[in-house]
Amino acid sequence: MSDRQRAPRRRRVGTALRFSAFLGVLLLIVLAASTWATWASFSNRTRAEATTDLAATVKAYNRSLASVPADGVDAATIRFLSGTVLPSGEQLVVSLPGGRRYGTTNATKLLASPELRSIVEHPPSSTSLRTIEVQGQTLDVLVTPLRQGGTVVGSVISTYDLGPALGDQRRVLELAVIEATIALVAAVLGSYLLLRRLLGTVGRITKTAQVIEEGELDRRLGDQGTDDEVGELAATFDAMLDRIDEVMSLQRQLLADVSHQLKTPLTVIRGHLEVMARTKLDDPEDIRATVELVVAEIEHMRLLTEQLLLLGHSLEADFVVVAPVDARAFVGDLLASAEVLGERQFQAGTVDDILLMVDESKLRGALLNLLDNALKATDPGDVIELSVTREPRGLISIGVDDAGPGIAPAERDRVLSRFGRPDDETREGTGLGLAIVGAVAEAHGGSLSLGESRWGGLSARILLPPSVVISGVEAGFGIEQVVS
C-alpha cells in the first residue's frame, strides 16, 4: 500500500447531528427541570392560598363566638353563616354539642362523605389539614376543634374545592410543556442548521486541502459571501495557501537559479582540470595559473552559495530579531568600517536623532552590500554618502548615495531581481547583493528603492515603515529585555 492510500474509515454520524443531539438532551433535562419547578411553584402557591383562606374563615368564625354565652352559640353560628360571604369553592360546617349541625349551601352533600361524618361524630383534639375525595371532588379540609371550658364539644370544618385550582395547574403544566417543546425544537433545529453551515465551510476546507495534497496547488476556497468568522477562516486559509504557493515558487526559482549559476563555474573548473589531466604541464607558472583560476571559481561558488542560503533564510519568520538601535551611533560605526574598503570620501549625510527597532546585524550587512556596490561603481576620491532621514509620509529612509555612473531607469527593476546586473561585462559580482538588501528591507516591513543621487550617481534607499521608530520609554524597555 502506498503512502497516499488511506485505510477505509467507519462512517460516523455527522458532527452537526451529534452536537445537536447532545444539546437536545441537555436542553431537555434543563427544560424538564424548569417545567417541573414552575408547576410545583404554582401548585404550592395555590394550595397555600387555599389553606390561608380556610384558616381565615375559621378565625373569623371563632372571633364571632368570642363574647357569646354558651346558650347563644347556635344563634351566633346562624348569624355568621348567613352574613358571611365565603370565597368561591369554600364551604363551612359547624358541629355543636347535642348533635346540632349547621353549614353553608351544599353542606349536606359534604356530610355524605364517611370521612367527614367520622370527623363530625368524633371531633379531633387539635387542628388538622387533609385532602379527601367527596363525590368526585378533591377537597382541602381544615378541621378545628370547638372547645367549651377546655373540653372539646364540637368541631368547625372548613373545606375548599381544589377542582378549579387543579385545572389551572394542569393548564399551567400543559402550557409550560408546550413552551419547553417549542424552545427545545427551535434550539436544536437552529443549532443544527448553524452547525451545518459552519461545518460545511470546514468540510470544503478539508476537501480543498485533500485536493491540494494530491497536487492541485492552485485550488482556493474563494469568497464565502460572509464577513463573519467563517468568511475570515476561509480568507485566512486562502491567504495561507497563497503564501505557501509563493514560497514554493520562490524556492523552485531559487533552485533553478542555483543550478544555472553554478553550472558555469563548475564547467570552467572541470574543463581546466581535464586539460591538466590530459596535458603534461612542466611549467610551474601554468600550474599556478590553473590552480588560481580554479580557486577563484570555487571562491565565487562559495560566495554565491552563502548569498543564496541567506536569501532562502529570508523567507523564514525568524529571519530578523529586532532590538533598539541608535541611528547616529549606527551610521558612525558603519562609516568607520567602510573606510577600509577603499579610497573614497565616505561621509554622513543627514542623520536624524532617532531610535530604530531593527535587526542591527542584518541591516548592517545590507548597507555594507550597498556601500560595496557604490565602491565598485566609483573611482578613488569619489563621494559615498550614508544618511538616515524621515520621509514626508513618515517612512524612514536609510540611503547610500554615490557619485558613480548610476543605473539607467530602464534597468533598475532588473537589477533588483536575483542575478540581475546593470552591465554583466563591466561589473563584477554575483548579482545577488541588491536582492539580499531587498529581502532584508522586506523582512522589516519595508522595501528597496533605486534613484539618482544629487551627484548623478545611484541613490539606493531602504524605506522602513514608521512603526520601526520607538520612543524613549519603549527603547528603555527594549534595551532592558535584550540585556537581560
Explain the layout of strands and helices.
Layout lengths: L14 H50 L8 H11 L6 E6 L5 E3 L3 H4 L3 H8 L6 E7 L2 E12 L2 E11 L1 H51 L15 H50 L5 H30 L9 E4 H12 L6 E7 L3 E4 L1 H18 L5 E8 L5 E7 L6 H8 L16 H11 L3 E6 L5 E7 L4 E2 L1 H12 L1
Whole-number mean pLDDT:
77
Radius of gyration: 50 Å
Strand content: 15-25%
Class computed from helices, strands and strand pairing: alpha+beta
N→C terminal distance: 54 Å
Tally the structural domains: 3
User: How many H/I helices?
Assistant: 12
Low-pLDDT regions: 1-5, 472-484
Please give the number of β-strands.
13
Quickly give the CATH architecture of the largest domain. Answer: 2-Layer Sandwich
Largest sheet composition:
5 strands, antiparallel
What does this 3D model show about the protein?
The protein has 3 domains: 21-168, Beta-Lactamase (2-Layer Sandwich), CATH 3.30.450; 229-313, Helix Hairpins (Orthogonal Bundle); 323-483, Heat Shock Protein 90 (2-Layer Sandwich). Helix 6 (229-278) runs antiparallel to helix 7 (284-313) and helix 9 runs antiparallel to helix 11 (433-443). Residues 1-5 and 472-484 have low confidence and may be disordered. Strand 3 and strand 4 form a beta hairpin. It contains 12 helices and 13 strands. Strands 2-1-5-4-3 form a 5-stranded antiparallel β-sheet, sandwiched between helices. A 5-stranded mixed β-sheet has the order 7-9-10-12-11. Strands 6-8-13 form a 3-stranded antiparallel β-sheet. The two termini are 54 Å apart. 20% of the residues are buried. 55% of the residues lie in helices and 17% in strands.
